[in-house]
């Protein structure tokens, strides 16, 4: 089918993320992708190929069509693509789960495989609520989080997204009401703000009788605003959760698998949550799968309760294709000096984004691990910024006041320089 016919059908029938129907903007048609490049069906700004600055929303850490990952999917396909997970099990899932237990913080030892990040967060919240129910403390069913967060688009995860950017006012009476602390003070290297710590403790103390859990994105708040905070706040949360008998959930769906410079962002703080979610880069961006891990204490609590089972079981749970490629992706990551690669990207982004310092409207430039952010003092004109970066040969997807990148770890020095130039051009245009 020619590109124009495809786009016509797309506009009339395909609902894209965060979009009206029919669509008001024209997406780029991707014909294929390999390495850190997207190949377009029709040229954009005269280019058939764009450098991918987004890793398909944090997921494609090894780039596209990696031979080891292609092989893992193909090998699994020869055995089976799917079987139900109730009453059946298989090597692909077992090997993946064992690997996840091995590489995540020590006390996490049980794994529930989910089919997307939002579902993994649903399961995490359900685990915590069910844990307290099992212990006969069913009043503990609310969740505390700090503002500026993002945890997914299904209803319970939405309830712990930032109330303003998550537009909670449109969902009054629909979303469960949760408890919100202020945003954590900004800055990965900033010292712990004692006033913030005291007000967080006061809030926890006041609400603990109703709290099942605290949920946060450790170190980097992603889709809620691309803000970085000090690992000291994670240690603080661990202390407060222990003191006031509240479970701690880390949502590592965006930060996991090396993105922030440690394998998991929790490792910056040296603390372990009671429950942890991973997703996105779990499968190297190949297939949809996420996972919720928990401690033995959480699992024993749930299993010893009246229900005695965790009340969840998606149809495509533990999908063998996804599990096989996830295992291969983790092996591929750990089999190389990934920390050096992420550091290389960090310094490339620092260098590349320095040129944006003098651009009018650029309020802040921040880089952590393989994440680079330009924050503007106004809302980005997304269409103009996207076009400006495409003109430089780079695919970016700015939102709100943010032009940001989290490139695949295989991105080379020249491509990184072009990403820096494209982000700067986007800031000028948008
Ligand atoms: N939590 C975080 C921190 C995320 O960044 C996302 C996805 N942007 C989610 C949860 C939801 O994941 P999914 O889109 O796979 O449902």
Shape: globular
SSE arrangement, N to C: HEEEHHHEHEHEHEEEHEHEEHHHEEHEEH
Uncertain spans: none
Considering DSSP H and I runs of 4 or more, what fraction of the residues is helical? 25-40%
- Mean of residue pLDDT values: 97
**Counting H and I runs of at least 4 residues, what is the number of helices?**
14
Please state how the strands of the largest beta sheet are arranged side by side.
Answer: 4-12-11-10-7-5-6
For the biggest sheet, the summary is: 7 strands, mixed
Which labels suit this protein?
430 residues, alpha/beta, 7-stranded mixed β-sheet, 37% helix, binds 4'-deoxy-4'-aminopyridoxal-5'-phosphate
3D structure, described in words:
There is one protein chain. With 430 residues, this protein is of the alpha/beta class. It is built from 14 helices and 16 strands. The chain has helices spanning 3-13, 55-58, 67-79, 91-103, 117-134, 155-159, 194-207, 232-243, 266-269, 296-303, 320-334, 338-354, 382-391, 413-429, and strands spanning 30-34, 37-44, 47-52, 108-114, 142-146, 179-181, 211-216, 220-221, 227-228, 247-251, 275-278, 290-295, 362-368, 371-376, 394-395, 402-405. The strands form four sheets. The chain has a seven-stranded mixed beta sheet, with helices on both faces. A four-stranded mixed beta sheet has the order 1-2-3-15. It has a three-stranded antiparallel beta sheet with strand order 13-14-16, covered by helices on one side. Strand 10 (247-251), helix 9 and strand 11 (275-278) form a beta-alpha-beta unit. Helix 4 runs parallel beside helix 11 (320-334) and helix 12 (338-354) packs parallel to helix 14 (413-429). The longest helix is centred in the N-terminal third of the chain and has 18 residues, at 117-134. The radius of gyration is 22 Å and the shape is globular. The two termini are 33 Å apart. The relative contact order is 0.16. The model has no long low-confidence stretch (mean pLDDT 97). Bound molecules: 4'-deoxy-4'-aminopyridoxal-5'-phosphate.
């Amino acid at each position: 089918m020619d590109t124009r016919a495809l786009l016509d059908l797309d506009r009339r029938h395909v609902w894209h993320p965060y979009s009206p129907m029919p669509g008001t903007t024209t997406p780029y048609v991707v014909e294929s992708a390999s390495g850190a490049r997207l190949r377009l069906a029709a040229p954009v700004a005269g280019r058939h190929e764009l450098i991918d600055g987004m890793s398909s929303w944090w997921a494609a850490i090894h780039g596209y069509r990696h031979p080891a990952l292609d092989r893992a999917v193909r090998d699994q396909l020869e055995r089976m693509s799917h079987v139900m997970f109730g009453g059946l099990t298989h090597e692909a899932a077992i090997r993946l789960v064992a690997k996840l237990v091995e590489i995540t913080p020590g006390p996490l030892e049980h794994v529930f495989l989910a089919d997307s990040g939002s579902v993994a967060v649903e399961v995490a919240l359900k685990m915590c609520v069910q844990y307290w129910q099992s212990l006969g403390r069913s009043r503990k069913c609310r969740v505390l989080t700090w503002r500026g967060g993002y945890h997914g688009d299904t209803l319970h995860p939405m309830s712990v997204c930032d109330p303003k950017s998550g537009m909670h006012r449109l969902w009054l009476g629909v979303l469960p009401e949760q408890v919100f602390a202020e945003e954590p003070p900004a800055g990965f290297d900033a010292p712990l703000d004692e006033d913030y710590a005291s007000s967080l403790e006061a809030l926890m103390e006041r609400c603990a009788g109703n709290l099942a859990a605290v949920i946060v994105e450790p170190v980097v708040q992603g889709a809620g605003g691309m803000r970085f905070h000090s690992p000291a706040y994670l240690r603080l949360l661990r202390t407060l959760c222990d003191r006031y008998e509240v479970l701690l959930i880390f949502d590592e769906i965006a930060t996991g698998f090396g993105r922030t410079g440690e394998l998991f962002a929790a490792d910056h703080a040296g603390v372990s949550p009671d429950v942890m979610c991973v997703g996105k880069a779990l499968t190297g961006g190949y297939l949809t799968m996420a996972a919720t891990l928990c401690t033995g204490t959480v699992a024993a609590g749930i299993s010893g309760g009246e229900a005695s089972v965790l009340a969840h079981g998606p149809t495509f749970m533990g999908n063998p294709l996804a599990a096989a490629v996830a295992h291969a992706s983790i092996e591929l990551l750990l089999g190389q000096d990934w920390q050096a690669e992420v550091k290389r990207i960090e310094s490339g982004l620092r260098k590349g984004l320095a040129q944006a310092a003098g651009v009018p409207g650029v309020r802040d430039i921040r880089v952590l691990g393989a994440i680079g952010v330009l924050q503007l003092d106004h809302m980005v004109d997304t269409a103009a910024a996207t076009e400006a970066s495409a003109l430089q040969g780079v695919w970016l997807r700015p939102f709100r006041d943010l032009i940001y990148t989290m490139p695949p770890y295989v991105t080379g020095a020249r491509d990184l320089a072009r990403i820096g130039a494209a982000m700067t051009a986007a800031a000028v245009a948008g």
